[in-house]
Predict the structure.
Amino acid sequence: MIRIAYLGPAGTFTEQAAQQWDPASAPSAWPAPSVPAAIDALREDRVDAAVVPFENSVEGSVPATQQALLEAAEEGVRITAEVHVEVQFSLLVRPGTTLETVRTLATHPHAAAQTREWVADHLPRAQLVPESSTARAAQAVAEGRYDAAVAAPGAAASYGLVPAAEHIADRDGAVTRFVVLRSGAPVPEPTGSDCTTLVALIWQNRPGALLELLEQFAARGIDLSRLESRPTGEGLGEYCFWIDANAHLAEPRLREALLGLRRTCRDVRFLGSYPRADGRAVQVPDHAGDEAYAAAQAWVDGLSRPGAATAASHR
């Protein structure tokens, strides 16, 4: 059994992600009150893994997770897996409540953004109240503090609520990406469908700084699935770059790119290499594969020998 912490309370999409990742251990998982609390439990060895939200296909990244993970990475906390959960929302109420009687509506800001049109059409007079999670909103409805909550369907059973409406998201197919964090764990073995998450801090904001960073990957045939600038917290205008590279630490092309980043950036933080949740195979150009790197290394090693050939081809 793995001791798991997840962003609580019970009934969140994060709990669903924990169940998806480890069905055997999820029933005894601890619902942490916040992302930093879940990561602190991991750092203090009170749990073996923490499952936290990382990115949503509609609303983008989760800043609370990014900030907490950026700090924890210096102590060996890394991403070892990811889980994708399709997001469905229901309008949850206490038994007997109808749409016409809803005056206060609670939910998480990300859920509010994804159901804005439905709420405007069906609850135009309701006051929207932000909560720390959709499950917390459902819990507050059960306690009588609000009339309704936009939450995951599973939260209804957790808090004795009923759905007044289901499938209320403005767009179908929204997905939230969750990451599994471990402390001091080895990097998972490469699968051929892997992602590496990094944070790069440039020396200074100057023309060409971002291009120089991107060239480290482009020259080595590494596709980036995410590139996002975030404040460093060190002053206005100071930014770092969050990067998801479709490659594994064990690949020579990524290791060479990391060498280049380490030389040209003020700091580079490695947040983990792990299997992609979608299982999609990563396409590697011929010139960037392991065989091409091995052949290039053999050529360089042989240059110091008397009479060595000085020309190399990509045949």
